[in-house]
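Supplementary Note 3. Input sequence used for the single-chain structure prediction.
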Amino acid sequence: MRRRFNSTRRQPYARNLRGRKTRFNRNKQVTTNNTHTLHTMKTTDQLNNMYDTILELELATFEELELVTSINGFNEQAMNDIVYVREGYQTLDQFVEYLDEQLG
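The predicted structure, written as discrete structure tokens, is reproduced below.
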């Protein structure tokens, strides 16, 4: 059976970490259709900034970052997992605050 082309296509769905359906927005953010909370993930520019910060702080090498993001995906959780494994902080922001306190 032949599939017909539908000119009014819906935006693609994906599943977030909790298994809920999410819909991709045009501004590269992912929002969750949940009545309790609206979870917004980082934009691509913010993820690129996290990636660069991890490289600049020498928390991981380029090859290690590429390996982790190819396995776990290019997302905030993968970046924060790298920080947690290397330094024990839950997020990159917490680690940067700690460095600012130590240097400042």
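Residues 36 and 63 are 39 Å apart (CA to CA). The longest helix spans residues 44-56.
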